[in-house]
Specification:
single chain; mainly alpha; 0% strand
Length: 276
């Protein structure tokens, strides 16, 4: 009788979502990332970006009194960044993102705080990156319009970059969306979602290449402008901030390469999403 009661009260969702590999130290088995601290860092960076975005929109709306397509693209990109940060915060603070699979239950793995938020981050990630880079390219196009080679280089780069990120967004939506009768958690562990993982390294490599082009074009253009040497140096230093994007892309690519094929999904995805 007691055996029947214990069997009937068994909840499969209370079981661990994964099995720890042998040979791990107790410290490694229990390790986790601090979701609060990571979300705080991303929130600060997003707040700084939002402050510059607000200044830009205010100046274009009330001083120049002319908004352009670049402002619309920039706005969509900013909205996407905020959505991504909110999802990251929910999944890493309330959900299991940043914890080992063997330290969470199946209920936590299948909960919306992980499955839904991770789905959103995966699907909109390429779109947000594409919008941000397109906004930068459109801004450069306005600044360096008189330079014929620069104008055509920026147009070609914007077209190729937009086509690439649009294609990746469609691919990620197709492969990450659960099919009829399938839950998100089941889909994440299936073959369809695995195909997106295989594309992560090539995608990051192309993104790194675009970031390099975004840095080279304005720097080369500045040296062709008729400016005093001091102003030219200041402009170069301003555009060199784009080097931070290259550093971020390199770190992201290194993390994806290091964690490729790792089944500990909830643990390694936190770094992938943090450095995206």
């Amino acid at each position: 009788m007691s055996s029947a009661n214990s069997h009937s009260s068994y909840n499969p969702l209370a079981a661990a979502a994964g099995k720890a590999p042998p040979g791990l130290s107790p410290q490694a088995r229990a390790s986790s990332y601090n979701g609060v601290a990571m979300t705080a860092v991303l929130s600060v960076l997003t707040s700084i970006a939002f402050a510059f975005f607000t200044i830009r929109i205010y100046a274009k709306s009330f001083i120049i009194r002319r908004l352009g397509w670049d402002d619309l693209v920039c706005t969509l990109g900013m909205v996407g960044v905020i959505v991504d940060i909110v999802c990251f915060g929910i999944s890493s603070i309330q959900g299991p993102l940043g914890k080992h699979l063997w330290n969470i239950t199946l209920a936590e793995f299948t909960a919306p705080t992980f499955s839904v938020t991770t789905y959103i981050m995966q699907v909109i990630g390429s779109a947000v990156l594409g919008l941000i880079k397109l906004a930068i390219l459109l801004f450069y196009l306005q600044v360096f319009w008189p330079l014929n080679w620069c104008r055509w280089s920026l147009r070609i780069t914007a077209s190729l970059s937009s086509a690439f990120y649009l294609a990746m967004t469609i691919v990620q939506f197709y492969f990450m969306t659960p099919r009829h009768g399938e839950t998100m958690a089941q889909h994440f562990r299936g073959k369809m979602a695995t195909k997106v993982t295989r594309l992560s390294i090539p995608t990051s490599s192309v993104g790194l290449g675009i970031d390099v082009v975004l840095l080279i074009i304005p720097l080369r253009a500045v040296f062709q402008l008729q400016l005093a040497k001091a102003k030219r140096i200041r402009l170069c230093l301003t555009f060199m901030v784009g080097g931070l994007a290259i550093v971020g892309s390199i770190v992201s690519l290194a993390i994806k390469t290091h964690t490729y094929g790792n089944p500990d999904l909830t643990y390694h995805l936190v770094l992938v999403n943090f450095f995206v």
